[in-house]
Amino acid sequence: MNQMLPKAAVLAMTLLAALSFAASASAAPAVVKIDGSSTVFPITEAVAEEFQKAKRGAVNVTVGISGTGGGFKKFCRGETDVANASRPILKKEMDDCAKAGIRYYEMPIAYDALTVMVNPQNAFIKSMSVAELKKIWEPGAQGKINSWKDVNPAWPDQKIKLYGAGSDSGTFDYFTEAIVGKAKSSRGDYTASEDDNVLVQGISGDKGALGYFGFAYYIENQKKLKAVAIDGGKGPVAPTPENVDNGSYQPLSRPIFIYVSEKSLEKPEVKEFVEFYMKSAAPLVKEVKYIPLPAKAYTGNLEHLAKKKLGTVFGGQNEVGLTIEQLMKREAQL
Amino acid sequence: MPADSLTVADGSPDAHLQAVRHLIARHKTLDWLFGLLGVAALMFAMLVFAMLFGQMLVNGFPHLSWDFFTSFPSRRAASAGILSAWVGTILVMLVTAVVAVPLGVGAGIYLEEYAPKNLLTDIIEINVTNLAGVPSIIYGLLALALFVYQFGLGQSIAAAGLTLALLILPVVIVATREAIRTIPQQIREGAYACGATKWQVVAHHIVPYSLPGIMTGVIIGLARAIGETAPIITIGALTFIAFLPPSPFGNPGHLISFDWLTAPFTVMPIQMFNWISRPEAAFQANAAAAGLVLVVMTLSMNAIAIWIRYHFRKRIKW
Q1: What domain count does chain B have?
Q2: Nearest residue on chain B to A22, judged by CA atoms?
Q3: Chain segment B145-154, per-residue pLDDT in tens
Q4: CATH architecture classification, A115-238
Q5: Model confidence at B193, in pLDDT bands (50, 70, 90)?
C-alpha cells in the first residue's frame, strides 16, 4: 500500500493534466443547439426527438429551458443556433443581436391560448369580460378587490384567490399586456409560480380561485379546472382550438416562434433540422396540445429561408390580439 | 445534600424520606418525558422521510424497468427514460472526483502537516470552513463566469464537474484534516526517529492511515454533489438530451479520447425537475421513478462510505 501511493498521486496528476488539455481540443459531432422559452419547449422537444430518430443519431439536438429572454441572450451571443420564443423579439434583444452581427429568420410555429380558469365548483362564473379581468388584475386592485362581489355585484361575496404566472415568464408579459394594457403591470398579492402544476393544484383545491396559464396545462387537467369564456367585446368565447383558429378567442391567443440564426444555417445539420421542423410541425404541435398554424404558414417560413427574408415583422414590440390570419398577412409582407 | 438540612423542613425522618422519594420520582418522570420527546423528534424526522420515500416508491417503482434505464427522454411519458441523465450524472461525478480529491487531500495534508501557524494559515482555515456553508447557487454563479465563459468550457461535462468539485472541496479538505488528526503523534515521532524525511512520513504513514477517513469524506461529498440542481442549472445544463457523450474508447488514432468532457449533458435532478413541471400526470410517475433511482444512488454511496470506514479501520493496528 505504501508503495502504491506515489503512483496514485502521479496518476491523478496525469488525469488532471489530460483533463485540461482535452477541454481545449475538441472535435464535437454535429450538434444543433436550441434554448429559450419553456412554453415552446414541448414542441421543439417533440421535433428534436423525431428528427434524431429520422437521422439515426447522425445529428444531435439539445434543447434547454432558460426562458424567452434568457434564450435570446444566448442566441444573440452566438451560443445557440435556434431560440425558442413565446413572444416576438424585443427592441433591446434586436440591438444585442445586431451588435454581435447575428441575423435571424423569424418563424411562427404555433398558437397558444392563454386560459383563465376557476375551480370546477364555481357555479356563478361561465364567462368574464376583459374589463372584469382587468378590474381584478390591475395593480390598483391590490387590497381593494378581495371578493368576487367587489368585481361584479351579481357575484357572491366569496373571497377571491388569485393564481398566475411568475413575473419572469413570457406568459406573464403577455397576459398583463392583453388584460391590464401594460406589460408586467399586475397586482402582486397572488400566488405566482413558474411551475404551472403548482397553479393547477392551487386552483383545483380552492373554491374561490381564479388563475391563468397556457392551454396545454388546462387540457391535461380538465377534470380539476373550469375554463372561463372570455368576452373581448363580441360576446363570450371559450378557449378551444377552433376559436383560436378562427380568430375569435381574443385577446388571449398568442403566436409562438422559433428564431434561427442565419450563420448557423450555413451548417447543413441546422438547415436540415429547420426544414424538418416546418414539415413535421403541424401534427406534433397538435400532439403536445398547442394549436397548429395553417400549412401555408410553415411553407411560408421555408420560403423566407429560400428568399433570404431576414428579420422580424414586429419591430421590437410585443403585440396582443393578433389573429392567425393577421399574423400570416404580416409575415407575408416581409 | 446533608441529611439534617432536610429534616429541618418537617422534623420527622419519615417525612424526609417521603420528600426525597417524591423528588426522585419527579426527576424520573422528567427523565422519561425527555426521552419520549427525543423519540418523538426522531420519529417525526424518520416518518417524514419514510412518507416521502414511500410515496416515491409507490408512484415510481412500477415505472422502473430495464427500458427506463436504457431509453432517452421523450415527449411520451411511457417511452421516456433516464439514459442520458444517469450517464451524465456518472461522468460529471467522475470529473468532480478526479479534480476534488487530489486538490482537497493535498490542501488538507498541507494545512495539517506543513502549514506554519501564522495569520495567513488562520485566514485560510476560516475560509475553508466558511466555504462549506456557502449556498450552492453561489458556486454556480462563480462557475458560470469562470469556467463557462472565462475558460470557454461552455455548457459541458467538464464545466459541471469542475463546479461540483469546487462545491465539495471544503468537505474533502475538512474530512482529510479530521482523518489526519486521529493519527497519534507517536507515529510521526517514531518515523522521524528512524530517520524518515517529512515526505516519507506523509507518504508512508499519514496518508495511508488517514485513507479510510478521507475516502468517507470524499464519498459523502460526492453524495451531496450528485443531488445538486441549482449550480448545474445556473451553468446551463440542458433539459432535452437524447444522445450520449462520445465514448472515451475506440476512437481512431487515440487510445482514450476526452471528447466527452466538452459534450453537452443533462443530469438526474434536472431530468426530474423537467418531468415534475410537465402537464401530463404520467410524467409525475416518471419523476418519482427517477427520484427513487437518485435516492438509491445517494444511499448506496453512503453505505459504501460506511463500509470502507469499517473495513479499513479494522486493518489498521497501532
Answers
A1: 2
A2: B258
A3: 999 888 888 8
A4: 3-Layer(aba) Sandwich (3.40)
A5: very high
- pLDDT for position A14: 56
| B53 CA: distance to closest CA in chain A (Å) | 21
Establish if A8 touches chain B: CB-CB under 8 angstroms: no
DSSP A237: E
Confidence of residue B79 (pLDDT cuts 50, 70, 90): confident
Q: Tell me whether residues A220 and B280 touch, CB distance under 8 A.
A: yes
Check if the beta carbon of residue A78 is closer than 8 Å to that of residue A33. Answer: no
Query: Same domain, yes or no, for B148 and B50?
Result: no
Contact B259, A18 (CB under 8 A): no
A218: which 3 cell numbers? Answer: 388546462
Q: What is the pLDDT of residue A8?
A: 53
Q: Measured between CA atoms, how close is A234 to chain B, in angstroms?
A: 31
Q: Where are the alpha helices (DSSP H) in B182-280?
A: 185-193, 198-201, 207-226, 230-234, 268-276
User: Looking at the complex, does the CB of residue A112 fall below 8 Å from at least one CB of chain B?
Assistant: no
User: How far B296 CA lies from chain A's nearest CA (Å)?
Assistant: 26
Task: Write out the residue range of the structural domain in which residue B289 sits.
Answer: 65-315
Average pLDDT estimate for B211-236? 87
Q: Per DSSP, which regions of A114-231 are E strands?
A: 115-118, 127-129, 161-165, 191-193, 209-213, 226-227, 229-231
Q: Are A178 and A151 in contact (CB under 8 A)?
A: no
CATH 3.40.50.1970 correct for A23-111+255-332: no
- Tell which residue, A254, A32, A217, A14, has the closest CA to residue B280: A217
Q: How far is A127 from chain B (nearest CA, A)?
A: 24
From chain B, the residues in CB contact with A6 under 8 A are 203
> β-strand A253-261 against A191-193: which pairing, if any?
unpaired
Cell of A287: 400532439
Q: Do B210 and B292 belong to one domain? A: yes
Q: How does the average pLDDT of chain B come out, rounded? A: 87
B188 and B311 belong to one structural domain: yes
Count the neighbouring beta carbons within 10 Å of the beta carbon of residue B235. Answer: 26
B107 touching A (Cβ < 8 Å) = no
For residue B134, pLDDT beyond 50: yes
Give residues 54 to 93 of A whose Cβ lies within 8 Å of B.
57, 60-66, 74, 79
- CB-based contact A22 B262, cutoff 8 Å: yes
Rounded Cα gap, residues A171 and A167, in angstroms: 9
Q: What residue of B is the nearest CA neighbor of A219?
A: B279
- B302 pLDDT exceeds 80? yes
Residue A44: name the closest of A74, A72, A86 by CA: A86
Residues B185, B276: one domain? Answer: yes
- Could you state, in chain order, the average pLDDT of each consecutive group of 10 residues for chain A (334 residues)? 50 52 50 90 93 88 87 92 92 92 94 93 91 92 90 91 84 90 89 84 91 90 92 90 90 93 93 94 92 91 90 84 84 80
Tell me, yes or no, whether B92 and B149 share the same domain.
Answer: yes
Residue B290 or residue B263, greater confidence: B290
The verdict on B52 and B88 lying in the same domain is no
* pTM (predicted TM-score): 0.79
- Within an 8 Å CB–CB cutoff, is residue A220 touching chain B? yes
Residues in a beta bridge with A36:
A84
